[in-house]
Design goal:
- The structure is a single chain.
- By secondary structure, the chain is mainly beta.
- The chain has a single domain, classed as Transthyretin/hydroxyisourate hydrolase domain (Immunoglobulin-like, Sandwich).
- The strands form two sheets. Strands 2-1-7-8 form a four-stranded mixed sheet, with no helix packed on it.
- The two termini are 24 Å apart.
Length: 125
């Protein structure tokens, strides 16, 4: 049987997006974070010029144990920059589903992408 230490402090989920096709932080990239099977919206916004999503969820606000899903508007990002892409785009919305077991830990999601693919993993705690 696994026991978990209970804490009142959540670590949060931070998102940092980089357009690796152009070697720049992905300022303006649209991001949405959902919780649970019924997809409760937890965070929504655009990444800053630094590529970071500035939202209270990054500091732990509203975080709880469970399954999350994050969506990244890759197709819109490139269309706004005048990048030619097929119709439909090969990669329009990138979706990543992950679980949080210990809310006191910080989950950093470095999102690296091009019009043709992406990489996303859990960064530092």
């Amino acid at each position: 049987m696994t026991t978990h230490k209970l804490t009142n402090t959540a670590g949060g989920v931070s998102i940092h997006a980089v357009d690796v096709a152009n070697g720049v932080p992905a300022g303006g990239l649209g991001v949405r974070l959902y919780f649970g099977d019924d997809r409760q919206l937890v965070a929504k916004g655009n990444c800053q010029d630094s590529g970071l999503l500035d939202h209270p969820v990054a500091r732990g606000t509203g975080m709880k144990r469970g399954v999350y899903e994050v969506e990244f508007d890759v197709g819109d990002y490139y269309r706004k920059r005048g990048v030619e892409s097929p119709d439909p785009a090969f990669l329009d919305t990138a979706v990543f589903r992950f679980g949080i077991d210990k809310v006191e830990q910080h989950f950093h999601l470095p999102f690296k992408f091009t019009p043709w693919g992406f990489s996303l993993f859990r960064g530092g705690e």
